[in-house]
Prior knowledge:
The chain is of the alpha/beta class. It has one domain (2-220): Vaccinia Virus protein VP39 (Rossmann fold, 3-Layer(aba) Sandwich). It is built from seven helices and seven strands; from the N terminus they run ααβαβαββαβαβαβ. The longest helix is centred in the first third of the chain and has 17 residues, at 15-31. The chain is globular. The chain starts with a helix and ends in a 13-residue tail after the last strand.
Amino acid sequence: MKRILKALHRRLTLRHFGIVAREIRAISKSQQRIVKVLDIGCGNGWYWREGPLANLVGKELIELHILDAATPPEELAEIASVHEGVAPSSLRDFAVNEFDFVTTFDLIEHFPKHDGYRLLYELDRISRFGSSVFTPNGFVWQPESTNNVFNAHLSGWTPRELRKLGWRKQYSAGGVKVFHGPYGVLKFSSNGALGFVLNLLSNAFGNLNPNIGFAFLGISEKKNTREDVQDLS
């Protein structure tokens, strides 16, 4: 029973990766080809080496590209094409529709609000079939760390905000928001049987509605309308 509960907890924790994998798999099936995917700000990108997204790599359903300010670990560089740069400015180097799908996990909250909007514009511009944004629900206090100035949270985003901008397919993650404090740390200890069960129930209940969850995943399905305007005077 304990093993089953742990497996369920892991599945709930990795739920957003599974949803993104499902979206990419659907594109591959509809297009009958390998999907070109860009992941922005992936850090060590551990989720491409284990879990549902790693299955896409292993089955060669995607051509993976990563963009990050830091040099990725060797294991990640072996399975992806590496582009070094800092978003959102470096995304201008990519052409319109250059990637079939673009992902970001825990990224947009590290930008000031105006740069976050620019990131969303660029995600929409360079993706052909859609993009995903995973972020905390609202602002979560987190300053820069001693070895990483980019670790600070500089903005907060809500499901309502992203829904209005085009990321309308939304899924909750991370348990119930009210159970989390600064840094996203749980307000109760998850050690021991009672804490583990409370955390499990929080994750299960929080998945019911993105508005009550600690974090959420937003997925855009089609591009926003653009006009070729040459003169705004």
